[in-house]
Amino acid sequence: PVPLRELAARDGRDVGTAVPGPALKNYAGYREELAREFSTLTPENAMKWDAIEPERGTLNWTDADAAVDFARRHDMAVRGHTLIWHNQIPRWLTDGGFSREQLDGIVREHVRRTVGRYRGRVFEWDVLNELTADDGSGYRRSLWSDTLGPDFPARVLRWAREADPDAKLYWNEIAADGISAKSDRFYAFAKALKAAGAPLDGVGFQAHFNLDGVPKGFEENLRRFSDLGLDVRVTELDVALQLPADDTARARQADIYAQVVRACRRVDRCKGITVWGFTDRFSWIPETQPGFGDATLLDRELEPKPAYRAFAAALQAP
Ligand SMILES: OC[C@H]1CNC[C@@H](O)[C@@H]1O[C@@H]1O[C@H](CO)[C@@H](O[C@@H]2O[C@H](CO)[C@@H](O[C@@H]3O[C@H](CO)[C@@H](O)[C@H](O)[C@H]3O)[C@H](O)[C@H]2O)[C@H](O)[C@H]1O
């Protein structure tokens, strides 16, 4: 079959996947499939703050460099993930008791150093990740919102722009895929940043779904953000199944993947789709959602599932 990356390219879009460090190192078949099917990759954990700077001043770029090098050797682009998130923050930072001024300096240095290191080699950054409160009331409570003041997103975006003027800068969000109080708040934040002239280039919708299906207003939501002059992306797509999954569940899963592809293709500024892992062998779902899994396009032996065929068919449909 024609690789997904080629089908997406016909539309001027890209298709990507999250890549866990160990998979890239230890599984030959995985690397071949990755390079064959995908035009972008997102390091699943290697570019997060706790991986890069586990101890203050101790830097570890090993897995991040390996992912960037792999991409360069296989004509793939890299989405950097993620600079500011409430999870996977190193302990020295959460327990540091830093003042606003001190934390500002620390964040600025982290952004300058990380974006600077991959200047010209990472084409997009999830600068901001999951900052919106789930109830849509405002910012999610975090070290950042508690310490850095209400305008910290604009400041962090500006530091990222300084470090690499060519990289596209994104705010990536979870559970804001449809029209909801949360996505309304996210929309208001994005609109305010654009109005303030902050360097926000795009927004990412993670799309961690299950058989409840694609949330109501998904396409409309993509379109309203793009109408703000923003690129939009699906950044972490998977469809978790209750285990053991049967053919009916896999057929429903396939339909959901296809719906997402069709919605993205109908929105001009939807730049592409990234799946959060492409084989059931490497997926965050089983560890974090006991009883669920089989969420991706290929099975554990890298064999295509109905989801893969539906994804490909939706990419090439007229
Ligand atoms: O939570 C799912 C998505 C939601 N959106 C943002 C996105 O970044 C997030 O991705 C997931 O983010 C999760 C953390 O919140 C990641 O899970 C972490 O993944 C890390 C790297 O594998 C794990 O850390 C390893 O843990 C091992 C045993 O516990 C240790 O031996 C390793 O040293 C340590 O690196 C953490 O326990 C585990 O919690 C998942 O792989 C990753 O898929």
Core attributes:
transmembrane; polysaccharide degradation; binds ligand G3I; 8-stranded parallel beta barrel; Beta-xylanase; 318 residues; alpha/beta
Q: Could you explain how this protein is built, in words?
A:
It is a single chain. With 318 residues, the chain is α/β, with parallel strands linked by helices. It has helices at 4-9, 21-26, 28-37, 49-52, 62-73, 91-94, 100-117, 143-147, 152-163, 181-195, 218-226, 247-265, 285-288, 306-316; strands at residues 14-19, 40-43, 77-84, 124-129, 168-173, 202-205, 208-210, 231-242, 270-275, 292-293. It has an eight-stranded parallel beta barrel, surrounded by five helices. β8 (231-242), α12 (247-265) and β9 form a beta-alpha-beta unit. α7 runs parallel beside α9 and α12 runs parallel beside α14 (306-316). The two termini are 17 Å apart. The mean pLDDT is 97. The chain binds ligand G3I. Ligand G3I is lined by residues 44-45, 87-88, 129, 174, 206, 236, 284.
